[in-house]
Design brief:
Blueprint: E1 4-7, H1 30-39, E2 43-49, H2 51-54, H3 60-76, E3 83-87, H4 103-111, E4 120-123, H5 126-136, E5 139-143, H6 148-152, E6 166-168, H7 171-186
Parallel strand pairs: 1-2, 1-4, 2-3, 4-5, 5-6
Helix pairs in contact: 1-7
The structure holds magnesium ion and zinc ion.
């Protein structure tokens, strides 16, 4: 079984966290962080809520165009997503994939052999990303980029029943924490 890092898009790999994917520019450290996971045999799985699609504000075509652009940019830095899952729905669509619901993780687990309790959800929004981590029994790492700071303070009440496993300045620091954990797992004291 493999460890996976389920990584949010907006606000986590780039962008501000609230806007749709088309305005997302990768943070300067995102390629390096993802490559480090790739090099250490950790599955890197993108999980993104894109309700702009259901609302008719973003086309699938524009979504895939941007996704392919991001993949190319990562490829130039020798980094890759092993898979990317997207929920296009709004709450009213009553789907089972909009984070913090677990549909995207269920899909990933039907393709890859994932050890969820030794896996991570990394994201900037407590009420979707950290609650999702809790729902699947994985470790949630809240990043303080995107809406992370607001989520930790003004909006803490929206996910008050859940504690993040770790709070990281950004995606790169989150990956450093994962590397530390894995080192400790391999050499028990
Ligand atoms: Mg986000
Ligand atoms: Zn959905």
């Amino acid at each position: 079984m493999k460890t996976a890092a389920f990584i949010d898009f907006q606000g986590t790999i780039g962008g501000k966290g609230t806007d749709d994917i088309t305005s997302l520019d990768l943070f300067p450290f995102s390629g390096k962080a993802i490559r480090r996971l790739n090099d250490n045999d950790i599955l890197v799985i993108g999980i993104t809520n894109q309700s702009h699609i259901s609302k008719g504000e973003l086309s699938w075509d524009a979504y895939y165009k941007k996704l392919n652009f991001l993949k190319k940019e990562l490829h130039l830095q020798k980094a890759r997503f092993d898979a990317v899952y997207c929920c296009p729905h709004t709450r009213n669509d009553r789907c089972n994939c909009k984070k913090p619901l677990t549909g995207m993780i269920d899909s990933a687990c039907s393709v890859f052999d994932i050890d969820l309790k030794n896996s991570y959800v990394i994201g900037d929004m407590g009420m979707s990303d950290m609650v999702l981590a809790n729902n699947i029994g994985a470790m949630g790492i809240l990043v303080l980029t995107g809406v992370g700071k607001g989520s930790l303070h003004e909006y803490r009440h929206t996910w008050k029943d859940v504690e993040p496993y770790y709070i990281a300045e950004n995606l790169y620091c989150a990956v450093e924490k994962i590397m530390d954990d894995i080192k400790n797992r391999e050499t028990p004291v």
